Amino acid sequence: MYVSTDLHGHTLYSDGRATPQEYVEFRRARGMKAIAIADHDLMAGVRAGAAAAAEAQMLFIPAMEITAHLHYGGEREEQFHVLAYYPHSVLQGVELEHKALYRRGLAVQERWKAFVLSWIDSRPLDEQAALGRDELEGLSPADFPALQSTILRIIDKKRELFEPFRDHHVRFWSSAGSNGDLFGWTPEEVIEAIRDDGAVDIVAHPARYRDKERTLAVLELAKGVEVYTSRHKAEVAAFYRDFAESRRKYWTSSSDDHQNARYIDPPCGTPARTLERICRRTFDLSALVA
Amino acid sequence: MVKIRVTRGVRAGFAGASGLLALSGGVAACAAPGQGEDVGETDEALTIQDPGTGVLKLGWVYGSPRGQTFVAHNSTDEYVRAREQMSFELSASYLWSQLYPNRTMPNDVDRLKKLSAEVKVHYVKGGAVYASTQVATKTWTGTSAWSLLATTGTFVVSRRAQGMRFEVEISDADEPANKAVVGQADFMEVSVIGGTLPTKTLLFDNLGGAMRSRVLEGGLPVRGADLDVAYTDWRAATVVDSSAIDRQIGTATSYGRFGPVEIPIFGELQYEITYGYAVDGAWHAEAPLTANAASRLLSSRGRTAYEAKLALPEDAQKLELFFHVKTFLKVDYSRAGDVRWRKYQDGERILVREKWDNENGVVFDNYDFVTEQR
Fold it and tell me: Could you give the CA distance from residue B194 to residue A84 in angstroms, rounded to a whole number?
């Protein structure tokens, strides 16, 4: 039994362009029954997304895409993303805001603000003024433009600074920067943190990573695999679906939409079993599958 | 299926208050007699007789000043009705976070049960508060700190209410000096259906692909009274199958973390909805419904209801209705930045789909409603 889903996409709280409301409305209009917003390393859009989904009578799953690294600090360093899916029930009260990884997201927002301001401060005074440095400094970390919004601001105010910023921004995550305490975790450490937080760990777009051997080892450990995503060709998705089903792992079907290209509809739903595991309850499948 | 009967002549005042106490089972925390009912009103009016029961729970709603606001969970449908018996449910985590925003919540159920709250309900009519009532937390459920919920006593929604506003005062028996008040401005107003009888509301909406038409107050449209007709944006989108409309109006170069990208530019879909109606076979000219982006029938910001008010004659026996949904693509390149390809002229408004909304989708068939006496 499969449910029409998109469990991985981004909003303007990370490197997407849509507001949470636009994100949900887009998927409602496509007839989806269960969705998640999975921004990079934070859950700032979850509350607004959940409210919009509730209005549309869709199942909303609080989520985030956590940045880990393989070979952090070494020559083969590369990012590795693990999705964390929380049960819907964490939206009750303020439980969500007390989750360890939610609080890590607040730290990410603070660091991002400091990172961008520090880069602006390294520019000549006329460029600082053009980018509205003082206005940006006055914003709280929660209101500070995230990656995509920062890029669009730079394009709008000082187009020629786009390439320098693009070259610089990768330092925020990499070992060349100073955020190893946030992003220098191994996938295994992230998986452990996700489980400690009461969430389900699903490896995002596993075909993307260069170190295939290590990726397979992480997949063996993880609770689940993102099988269908716009980053997987059909035969790749078939391979990971077979991998997941042969090991009784949970698997998902999503888009990894950033609103920067034509939307690719997930070609298949997500098994109801996966949703039931995430939410720790069974569903009235007739309502979700209808 | 909502089953709500409408009856005549529940007189306000002491008799009404007695009914209230009977309904609430004599709960001590309930409103004082007269407060939960129509305060100071002595007129005779139609009343919803079986308005159901409901619980107001805190939920996150887009547009709420503090995110969390009261959302009704009713035994009928998504709407609160006049004379509905209601209570509030407040999580211990919410109470703690409002009272002690800078303190970590203790993982101690007994400690959390020392918290309490009084919720004031202000009834709104014609945009102004005309009466209030209040209830206090009285029972706890749940075994862990995060699942611990306080439930208040019950109250009965005032017969004339068109809306409810709320404020919450939180106390702590362990630290009585500490109090917190979450004011009216921090909660969204909750609409109440049935406070304007005999005027009723005929709502045309949808649930997924299923089209619905409902008299929200129950029963039938009333002869010799106004009838509010409302049609929702999502129904219009479903009728015209908006997801299949090509909204692309061009392409633009934009920029992402991996470099320049060519992105599609989409236009906005706008609806113009007209309706035709006949009373006892006499058709009126098709007329537009008015777009209302702040309709009391839609709880969240960003939605639009298309509305009209009909005056039904005293002798009206049958009402027939149909709708005509025109969908326009609004072309606006001003927000797109570096436009590479323009499919249309800037500012154009193109009719992209036109559908009639008839009963069962059958052309020349209409939505039929017989009427009832006042």
Answer: 45
